[in-house]
Amino acid sequence: MKVVAIVGSIRKESYNLKLAKYIQERYKDRFDLEILSVRELPHYDQDIEMNPSEAVTAFKGKVAAADAVLWITPEYNYSIPGVLKNAIDWLSRVEKVLIGKPSWIMGATMGTLGTVRAQQHLRDILFCPGVGASLLPGNEVYIGAVHEKMDEAGKITHEPTVKFLDLVVDNFIKWFEQQQSLSK
Ligand SMILES: Cc1cc2nc3c(=O)[nH]c(=O)nc-3n(C[C@H](O)[C@H](O)[C@H](O)COP(=O)(O)O)c2cc1C
Predict the structure, then answer these.
(1) Cα(99)–Cα(119) distance, rounded to whole angstroms?
(2) DSSP 8-class letter at 22
(3) CA 167 to ligand 1 centroid distance, Å
(4) How far apart, in whole angstroms, are the C-alpha atoms of residue 143 and residue 133?
(5) Whose alpha carbon is nearest atom 31 of ligand 1?
(6) Which end of the chain is more exposed for a tag (fewer CB within 10 A), N or C?
C-alpha cells in the first residue's frame, strides 16, 4: 500500500514531521510512506488554478496516485496551520484528487490537548464536497506534551503512545482492506 503523509508544519525541527518520519520507519513493512512537502506550494489562487505551477501539479499527482493519505498536523490558534489549508484548497479544485481517498489523521503538540481542536476543524474540511475524503472512523491520535514523549532524533520514547500507534496502524490497515473489498 502506498500512503502519502501531508504534514501541516514546514519548520525543520517540527515534531509533526518527526512523527511522520517515525511512522515511516516503524511501519515500513506494513506500507510505503512518502512524506510530501507543502512548503513549495504557492498561495492558492483561483486565477491560476487551471494553469498551476509545476509544484502544484507534482503535489496533486502524488496525492492522486496514492492509495491513502495520512494527515499529520500541529494546532495553530485552535485550528490547522494556513499552509495545510492552502494545500487542501489546491487539492480540492479542478481535479478533485481527495474525493473518496482513504484518510487518517494524527497530530502532536507540546500542549496538553494534542491538537484536538485542529483535528476537529480538519475533519470538517475533509468532509466538504470538493474535498470528500473518506475518513477512518475513531482512532483519533492526539499526542499532547510531545516534547516529553519524543527524543531529539524523533524516536517516541513513551511506550503507551507507541502501543496506541501500533493499534491505530492495525485498525487503519483493516479498515482500508475492508473499503477495498466493498468497492469491488
Ligand atoms: C502560530 C502558532 C499558534 C499556535 N497555536 C496553538 C494552539 O492553538 N494550540 C496548541 O496546542 N498549540 C499551539 N501552538 C503550539 C504548537 O502546537 C507547537 O509550536 C508545535 O510544536 C508546532 O508543531 P511542529 O512542532 O510540528 O511545528 C501554536 C504555535 C504557533 C507557532
Answers:
(1) 19
(2) H
(3) 26
(4) 23
(5) 76
(6) C
- Which CATH number fits the domain that encloses residue 21? 3.40.50.360
At which residue does the C-alpha cell 469491488 appear?
Answer: 184
Q: Residue 176 is placed in which grid cell?
A: 482500508
CB 150 within 8 A of CB 109: no
1-44 confidence digits (pLDDT tens): 999 999 999 999 999 999 999 999 999 999 999 999 999 999 99
Q: How many CB atoms lie within 10 A of CB 74?
A: 24
User: What letter does residue 57 receive in the DSSP assignment?
Assistant: H
Q: How many angstroms separate the CA atoms of 92 and 6, rounded?
A: 14
Q: Which residues span the domain enclosing 163? A: 2-182
Cβ atoms of residues 160 and 52 within 8 Å: no
Distance 81 CA to ligand 1 centre (A): 9
Q: Which tens digit of pLDDT belongs to each residue from 154-163? A: 999 999 999 9
- Give the mean model confidence (pLDDT) for residues 98-124: 97
* Pocket, ligand 1, Cβ cutoff 6 A: 9, 11, 14-16, 74-78, 109-111, 113
**Residue range 72-96: mean pLDDT, rounded:** 98
- Which pLDDT score, from 0 to 100, does residue 182 have? 86
What does each C-alpha distance from 55 to 51, 99, 113, 140 come to in angstroms?
Answer: 11, 21, 34, 31
